[in-house]
Design a protein that fits this description.
Blueprint lengths: L2 H28 L8 H21 L7 H15 L10 H13 L15 H5 L17 E2 L5 E2 L12 H14 L4 H22 L9 H4 L2 H9 L4 H16 L3 H15 L6 H4 L14 H21 L7 H7 L22 H19 L5 H16 L8 H10 L6 H12 L4 H26 L15
Antiparallel strand pairs: 1-2
Helix pairs in contact: 1-2, 1-3, 3-7, 3-9, 4-6, 6-7, 6-11, 7-9, 7-10, 10-11, 10-17, 11-13, 15-16, 16-17, 18-19
Length: about 475
């Protein structure tokens, strides 16, 4: 078949699949499905995922010159569906707006929990966050102990978010606080679209279709836009930092990675990828530039808040880790590891698995493709921890788009199943995700052996052949 004919056929398949994807996502958001009642979402999400897969496969055969325009148009359409309704499965964005409002009053967000008596006047001026005259029975409402109704989750504890995230919340409130939660959703859409544009710029022409793995992935519309999670900002900073590291700009890369860590902490797992291969040669002082810069930048962002709140800048982090089962007393995580090791050893096994992968990347990783090592480390960490919050996987989706190993997308999908349907689905969902990763890697390894080694282009991101 001639390339032009193949491209036309691919385009004829891709566009309707994109339309179906946008239609399914719009249906998911407007169907009435919520975290409390996920049944309508179970109807629409499989349609969206199937349409996504068809659209991406077809996109690979579209003429490369058309791909950027198609990716951007499809991304705008898919992300826009997330703006159709208020958040359906997470209320974190309400906390973002509250933290922004508190900072606008010159108060540290770490100083008081939302239900503190000192903030009563501020709550009274925020009916979009603390509604009056309601039965307080919505899926995203709860009664605070003082008796008022709150959209803000965990109103009895201080914020958990690091300083760069708090700066973002202050900007959201300053630019669009009067629009309520819509401001956070628009902010998420802008960040997600910006990352798609960055991916298109970074990827070589023949690999730009991979940007659709981010922009068209249904989870991005859900977690980055409709639920408006700040993790999207961290992903944007990580991708930029890894791209600079690949070009040898270690200080700049470290600065962006440090800012990402000060956004959501978990981007720290991308640092070993940025240092890929350092253990394969004699150590150099230059090897410390990136990690030291990352630590310094992250620490400096804390300074203003430490001066205002002291040790309170940790917020609810210790309580959150215990609540979510990341301790030895109440194991809710480490589902896959608990199938093969005793429960009291699951935490140790998880740490050992992640450490082993980090050492592997530091020894054998490719410094020209730091996103590949970052994807491996972060993906293994998610499989070891088996978290129940799918938006943690936004970073994984961004790294998949840069690297091309699409089989890892099953990991955040597994987290979504657990999040909507509970821990009883944990073993099966994450087991299937692990099987997909293993199978994808096996197929990829066989294909690479048949083709022989591939030469990387210095200074430009490359990705393994699909």
């Amino acid at each position: 078949m001639k390339p032009s004919i193949r491209s036309r056929i691919a385009l004829a398949v891709c566009v309707p699949a994109l339309v179906a994807l946008s239609w399914a996502m719009a249906g998911a958001f407007t169907s009435g499905g919520t975290l409390r009642d996920a049944a309508p979402l179970d109807h629409w999400h499989p349609i969206a995922l199937g349409s996504f897969a068809i659209a991406v496969v077809a996109l690979k055969f579209v003429r490369p010159v058309l791909v950027p325009f198609l990716v951007l148009a499809g991304t705008v359409a898919v992300l826009a569906t997330g703006l159709l309704e208020p958040p359906r499965t997470s209320d974190d964005s309400y906390r973002y707006l509250w933290d922004g409002r508190v900072q606008a009053e010159g108060i540290s967000p770490y100083a008081h929990p939302p239900d503190a008596p000192e903030l009563a006047g501020l709550r009274a001026r925020a009916p979009e966050l603390f509604p009056v005259g309601t039965d307080c029975k919505g899926w995203d409402l709860r009664k605070a102990k003082p008796g008022f109704c709150s959209h803000v989750n965990r109103p009895a504890v201080p914020t958990i978010y690091p300083p760069v995230a708090e700066g973002y919340f202050a900007a959201l409130y300053g630019l669009g606080g009067k629009y309520g939660v819509r401001a956070a959703q628009v902010g998420g859409a802008v960040l997600a679209l910006s990352l798609c544009a960055l991916l298109l710029w970074l990827l070589p022409l023949e690999r730009r279709w991979q940007a659709a793995l981010w922009g068209w992935f249904p989870g991005v519309a859900v977690w980055a836009v409709n639920d408006a999670h700040v993790d999207t900002l961290g992903v944007l900073l990580v991708v930029g930092g890894l791209a600079l590291a690949a070009k040898g700009r270690l200080a700049g890369g470290g600065a962006l990675l440090g800012a990402a860590i000060a956004t959501k902490l978990i981007p720290a797992l991308a640092v070993p990828g940025a240092m890929a291969g350092v253990l394969s040669r004699r150590p150099r002082l230059k090897d410390l530039v990136l990690p030291v810069t990352a630590v310094v930048v992250a620490a400096l962002t804390y300074v203003p808040y430490v001066l205002a709140s002291g040790s309170g800048v940790l917020g609810y982090l210790p309580g959150y880790l215990k609540e979510e089962g990341y301790d030895s007393e109440e194991l809710k995580r480490f589902a896959l590891l608990r199938l093969v090791v005793p429960e009291d050893l699951a935490v140790i096994a998880a740490g050992a698995a992640v450490l082993a992968v980090i050492l592997y990347v530091l020894r054998y990783g490719d410094p020209l493709r730091p996103w590949s090592g970052a994807l491996l480390v972060f993906g293994v960490a998610l499989l070891a921890l088996t978290p129940g919050y799918p938006w943690y996987g936004l970073l994984l989706v961004g790294l998949v788009a840069l690297d091309g190993r699409w089989e890892w997308l099953g990991v955040p999908m597994a987290a979504q199943v657990v999040y909507l349907h509970g821990l009883e689905a944990q073993d099966t969902a994450y087991g299937l995700a692990l099987a997909a990763v293993v199978a994808g890697q096996a197929v990829r390894t066989v294909a690479l052996r048949r083709r022989g080694p591939r030469t990387a282009v210095p200074g430009r991101p490359t990705a393994p052949a699909p």
